[in-house]
Amino acid sequence: MSIDYIATPALILNRSRLSRNADRMSKRLADMGVRLRPHMKTAKSADVARLATKDHFGGVTVSTVAEARYMAEKGIKDIFYAVGLSPGKVAPLAEIQASHDAVITVLTDNVDALNAVATEAQRLETSFPVLVEVDCGGGRAGLVADDPDLIDVVKAIVAAPVLEFAGIMTHAGQSYGCNSTEEMADVAEVERATLVEVGQMLADQGFDCKTLTTGSTPTAAHARSMEGITEARPGVYMFSDVMQAHFGWGTTDDIAVSVLATVIGHRKDLDQLLIDAGGLALSKDRGMESRDPNIGLGVVCNTQTQPIKGLYVADSHQEHGIVKAAEGSIIPWDDMPVGSRVRVLPVHACMTAAAHDYYNVVDEDSDGNEDFSSLTIWQRQNGWY
Q1: CATH architecture of the domain with range 16-238
Q2: Distance between CA atoms of 117 and 92, rounded to whole angstroms?
Q3: Which residues are CB-neighbours of 60 under 8 A, at least 6 positions away?
C-alpha cells in the first residue's frame, strides 16, 4: 500500500507514536501511585483503548452513550460515563449494562436530576455507582467546594436504594488557558487540593469517597503531586496535537494523528495554496491563535509529517483548506504541484478526529519512517446514541 492510493482527506494514525505516548503517561501515573482511566472521547476506538491500557487493561472514560455501548460490545466492562446524567439517558445505559454484563459509573451535580435518575433506575430495576462533580475552577459543570448543595447531592445518592455513592471527580479545564508548564502545575495542584479537601469534608460527615478522580492531559502531565488522588482521566495525551506539544507534552514529533490532504489549487496572485481538507476534515478550532498566529487550523507537513517551513492552514471553507506561509517563509510552489500530498498536524486532535469515521493506521520502520505497506483500518464510534 502506498500513501498515494489513500483517498483524501484521510485521518492517519501513527501506531508507534501512539504507543510511546500511551506508555509515557501510563508510567508517569503508575510512578505517582494513581490509576489511569483513559478518557476515550478523543480516540473513540477500542483498539486505541486496548493499547492505552495494555499494562492494566480495565476501565475507561467515555462521553457519549454510543461510546459506552461500543466499548461494552468490545469487551470493556468498567465504564465511566463522564457527563452529567439526565433521566433520559438511564434507559439506554441500563440496557448496555444488562446486555453486556458491564458496570457504568455515572455523574451528577444536581439533587433534582439525581432524584429523577433514581426514580427511573428503580423503575427499570437497574443500579449505578455515582460520582459527584466538583468544580475546581474550570467553570463548566460541578459544585464548588463550599456549596451546601454538594452534601445534599451525596445524601440523595446514599438515600436512593438503586444508587451507590462512589466518590468525587473534577476536570481542570482552566489548564488549557495556561501559558507555561509551571502554571499548569499550579492548576494541577488546585485540582488535587480541591478534591482532597472535599473528600475529607465528606469523610468527616460519614461519607467515604472510594474514588477521587482528576481529568485533563495538561494537569496529568505536569502535576507535581497526586497525593490523595486515586485516579486520573487524561485523554488527548494518546494522540497529542499542536496544542499539547505547545503545552510541553512532547513535541510535534510525538503527534500521532494527522490529516492527509491533496493539493488542489494554486493561487499565486493571493500567495495561497488550496488543499482538499477543509473545515469538515480539520475542524475550525483555532485554539492556538492567541499563542502563535502562524498555526491557524494546523501545521502543514510533507508526507512523513515533517513540517514544511512556515506553512500552515490559515483558513478553511467546507471542503477547501487555504494554506499560507508565515512572514519570512514562502510556499515552495514547484515542490507542491496540484495532485501532490501533504499532512496537516491538528491544533486540537479531539475535534479533528471527530470529523472522520475511521483511522488509517501505520507503523514506523526501524529508521523511524512510516511504512504504509503495513496500513490497517481502525474504526471509531462517532455519534451520540
Answers
A1: Alpha-Beta Barrel (3.20)
A2: 12
A3: 37, 38, 39, 40, 49, 53, 71, 76, 78, 79, 80
Report pLDDT for 105: 98
Q: Which three cell numbers stand for residue 154?
A: 451525596
Q: Cα(first)–Cα(last) distance of the chain, in Å? A: 35
The domains of the chain are located at: 3-10+250-379, 16-238
According to the model, what pLDDT value does residue 34 have? 96
Size of the chain in residues: 385
CA distance 120 to 86: 10
270: its cell numbers: 493571493
Per-residue H/E/C for 104-121: EEEEECCHHHHHHHHHHH
Q: What is the pLDDT of residues 29-85, one digit of tens each?
A: 999 999 999 999 999 999 999 999 887 666 999 999 999 999 999 999 999 999 999
Q: How far is CA 21 from CA 15, 196, 244, 344, in A?
A: 10, 28, 12, 19
pTM strictly above 0.85? yes
Helix (H, G, I), strand (E, B) or coil at 341: strand
Q: Which residue has the cell 486540537?
A: 348
* Residue 263 near residue 275 (C-beta atoms within 8 A): yes
Pairing of strands 307-316, 257-267: unpaired
At the fourth CATH level, the homologous superfamily of domain 3-10+250-379 is D-serine dehydratase-like domain (2.40.37.20)
Bridge partners of residue 161, in order along the sequence: none
Q: Is the peptide bond before 129 cis (omega within 30 degrees of 0)?
A: no
Q: Are 252 and 242 in contact (CB under 8 A)?
A: yes
Asked if 176 and 287 touch (Cβ cutoff 8 Å), the reply is: yes
Rounded to the nearest 5°, which phi and psi values hold at 288? -105, 0
Tell me how far the alpha carbon of residue 40 is from its chain's centroid: 6
Nine cell digits for residue 223 = 502535576
